[in-house]
Design the sequence.
């Protein structure tokens, strides 16, 4: 893409063009060489949006929850960006379509921008692209950016860690309370939601979660209790019947306020930006090496030796770091 | 640790000391500076073991399956290494203990070595440590190395990709057949097992899986069908009653034979070793940068600028790569 066209796109997005925004999203999703220039250009505009992650097992009603929250946010005259991370299996088209159709009422609303991330990139590609898409929505002046993920793989955890507030959504099925512990959801939740709360076992589930949280608080080292602590709420909702959503919206606002008051919001964002730098260096190094592989016979030989098992990967990695391979690469 | 002690440990492991093996595992799990020397030392001994990954949702009976396979492998006079990746939640101690106790019959058997990976490392730490532990078991001359993981997060996928054969274990509960697609298990399975096959819905589940596999085969580009293809079997087991396990063991042997005959085993292992090199370079770069941060004021300033949001992470990563930061680091 010519530099001029990219500048034009950025300018158009700046003037509120959703078409330009969508095209820029496609560019960052493809991880092409324009990504650097896009991120550099939007950097001064970042930090406005309050970002919210919604995660939980499949079938927990996350899409309905996001849908309902979007309606409430729009009623409060706020603009909303929604990013949904969908599994890329070619078999799952049907279910996904169903989810998206439910968001249909918002498609005609210019104050809402919805993006499904369809590609399952390797080596953190999906997480990286999702973070960049969230930044574009932030630069587009969305007041809220909601990102919805399924499960708790590394990609999902990486994305959740990049949000200001994480909502973990569960359903009152038996066994879920055990799974929440195992999956490490406990560590990332700022708000718990028991959705489909009209089903059997909802009360039991909420009690279980509250007890686990008590246990978590009581295990905290005494020294840490001096700072004000966020008390993770456990909320009951029936997203498709619009029950409990105003309370959830309130809890979100409270958490945002809590983060802002104590300076925790800025601390989290600082850590996040520095972590992103490390991740980008890692990725650039990988990319540079794989590019160099075709140009540099010495590096190609090293890879061959490792591939054949004649040189162990650890020793080879030290050779790479001592060498000029990383420096010789062209512009990334 | 003094160099001599490490050499001694390596020598003792070479002479069959399980105590030395366990201590070396602890060292690689801690990711200390000895890891390089350990991997270098064992490199010439690698490639003997046939590695098998067992994955699936929580409660699918993976531990019983691994237990039963171990018994069969021992009956065939083979030595076995077992690596179990357990979630690190402090709350899940009870369930884990239960799983491990079931393997109890093998604890006194010198032909079986069992290791639970308890730490959930960040930045691929758990996957890296698991791969290294598998290598130690290989160097210890285990004929089979079984590695058991829960779910399909990035760590689990990384570990499964590092094995020769992947068994995906499911149970005949409704909804599982949808989840298998979503979770991307389809892409990694060499053998499907429907465990607890005496339960309702087992036959339905097996039919579903077979149909999905048919669909997968029929979607293959025509050009790819020239090479011999592995036909992924769908097997029924009741691991705790020892039903179907001999057939599973046979399927494992067939797959191993298939891989060896077509040269696919060596191709997979070659790719794997080269991928490991890339991952190790990435990790070494991250570690070098974080170490340098305390020593180099210019790098510290760069991180500060990024943290404060005054410099975007992408531009900063280009500065890092153009700089001497990566070269200045001491020995890793």
Sequence:
């Amino acid at each position: 893409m010519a530099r001029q066209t990219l500048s034009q796109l950025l300018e158009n997005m700046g003037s509120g063009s959703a078409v330009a925004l969508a095209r820029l999203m496609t560019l960052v999703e493809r991880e092409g060489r324009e990504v650097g220039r896009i991120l550099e250009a939007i950097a001064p505009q970042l930090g406005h949006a309050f970002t919210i992650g919604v995660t939980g097992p499949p079938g927990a009603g996350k899409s309905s929850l996001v849908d309902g929250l979007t309606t409430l946010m729009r009623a409060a005259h706020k603009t909303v960006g929604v990013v949904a991370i969908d599994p890329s299996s070619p078999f799952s088209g049907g279910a996904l379509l169903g989810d998206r159709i439910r968001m249909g009422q918002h498609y005609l609303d210019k104050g809402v921008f919805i993006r499904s991330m369809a590609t399952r990139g390797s080596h953190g590609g999906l997480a990286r692209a999702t973070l960049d898409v969230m930044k574009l929505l932030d630069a587009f002046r969305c007041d809220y950016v909601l990102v919805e993920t399924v499960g708790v793989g590394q990609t999902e955890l990486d994305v959740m860690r990049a949000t200001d507030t994480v909502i973990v959504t569960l359903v009152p099925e038996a066994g879920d309370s055990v799974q929440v512990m195992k999956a490490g959801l406990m560590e990332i939740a700022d708000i718990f939601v028991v959705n489909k709360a009209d089903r059997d076992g909802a009360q039991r589930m909420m009690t279980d979660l509250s007890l686990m949280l008590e246990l978590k608080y009581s295990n905290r080292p005494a020294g840490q209790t001096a700072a004000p602590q966020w008390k993770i709420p456990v909320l009951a909702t029936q997203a498709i019947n619009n029950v409990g959503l105003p309370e959830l919206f309130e809890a979100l606002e409270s958490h945002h306020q809590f983060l802002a008051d104590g300076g925790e919001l800025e601390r989290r964002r600082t850590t996040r930006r520095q972590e992103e730098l490390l991740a980008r260096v890692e990725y650039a190094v990988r990319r540079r090496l794989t590019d160099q592989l075709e140009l540099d016979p010495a590096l190609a030989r090293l890879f061959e030796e490792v591939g054949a098992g004649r040189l162990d990967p650890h020793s080879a990695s030290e050779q790479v770091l001592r060498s000029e391979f990383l420096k010789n690469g062209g512009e990334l």
